Amino acid sequence: MGFDVPEPFAWDESFRVDYDTIDTEHKGLFVAIFDVAAAPSDNAKVQTLLTKVTNHFTSEEGMMTKAGYADIVAHKKLHADFIDKVKGLAAPVDDGTVKFAKSWLVNHIKTTDVKYKGKL
Ligand SMILES: [Fe+2]
Ligand SMILES: [Fe+2]
């Protein structure tokens, strides 16, 4: 997948989608993945990440629904596919999974989330 993964892993302005709620949640997801990467054996951090991901998808999908966003079905499918991959996750998290999560978040925001800019 294409976009550069920031190192250290943190949200920056290039991820802005111009909705404060979503930008704040995205920042939280970067922090949650950073925390898992820093302490892959800490199951509390892993579960915090999963909760934040689930809550964010619910919130983003709610905004898309409310706005009658045309591409919501395909977008929700991408969220569901990610959840399927991480839902059983527990510490210790291996390096490949951390890399996958970082890359998925970066590329999902820059490829898929940006498409709703100005439409919600
Ligand atoms: Fe999304
Ligand atoms: Fe998002």
Largest sheet: none
Give the class from helix and strand content and strand pairing: mainly alpha
Number of E strands: 0
Helix tally? Answer: 4
Distance from N terminus to C terminus (CA atoms, Å) equals 26 Å
Helix content: 55-70%
CATH domain fold name: Four Helix Bundle (Hemerythrin (Met), subunit A)
CATH superfamily: Hemerythrin-like
CATH architecture: Up-down Bundle
| Content of β-strand | under 5%
* Text of the CATH class: Mainly Alpha
Q: What's the mean pLDDT score? A: 97
Task: Report the order of strands and helices.
Answer: HHHH
Hetero groups bound? fe (ii) ion
Q: What global shape is seen? A: globular
Number of individual domains: 1
Rg, Cα atoms, Å = 14 Å
- Poorly predicted sequence stretches spanning 5 or more consecutive residues: none
